[in-house]
Amino acid sequence: MSVLDSFDQWKQFLAQRVEQAQKMGMSTDAISNVAYYIGDYLANEVDPKNREERLLKELWEAGTEEEQKTLANLMVKMVSKP
């Protein structure tokens, strides 16, 4: 089973990667920048596997580059531990 098959699994996977990046000393801006490139790749190359991924893809495609960066930043915030 792929982490993309379930949105909850995707969020857990993303949270783990964000935590690893933070432990390695990456800044929040750097993490959000990487998230933007991952989001762009997923939107362009991966078929959504569930409703949540479909919604994210549609939001991504509707947004400007700046809005896409905001969406990526919000995803990082959503899975980051306080």
How is this structure best described in words?
- By secondary structure, the protein is mainly α.
- The protein has a domain at 27-82.
- The chain has 4 helices and no strands.
- It has helices at residues 7-23, 28-45, 51-62, 65-79.
- The radius of gyration is 12 Å and the shape is globular.
Roughly what is the average pLDDT, rounded to an integer? 91
- Ranges with pLDDT <50 over ≥5 residues? none
Largest sheet: none
In whole angstroms, the N-to-C terminal distance is: 29 Å
Strand coverage percent: under 5%
Rg over C-alpha atoms, rounded to the nearest angstrom: 12 Å
Helix-strand topology string: HHHH
Coarse morphology: globular
Backbone structural class = mainly alpha
Q: Could you tell me the number of beta strands?
A: 0
Number of helices: 4
What is the share of helical residues?
over 70%
Gist?
It comes from Calditerricola satsumensis. By secondary structure, the protein is mainly α.
SSE inventory with pairings:
Layout: H1 7-23, H2 28-45, H3 51-62, H4 65-79
Helix pairs in contact: 2-3, 2-4
Protein name: DUF3243 domain-containing protein
Pfam family, one: DUF3243
Organism: Calditerricola satsumensis
Features:
mainly alpha; 76% helix; 4 helices; 82 residues
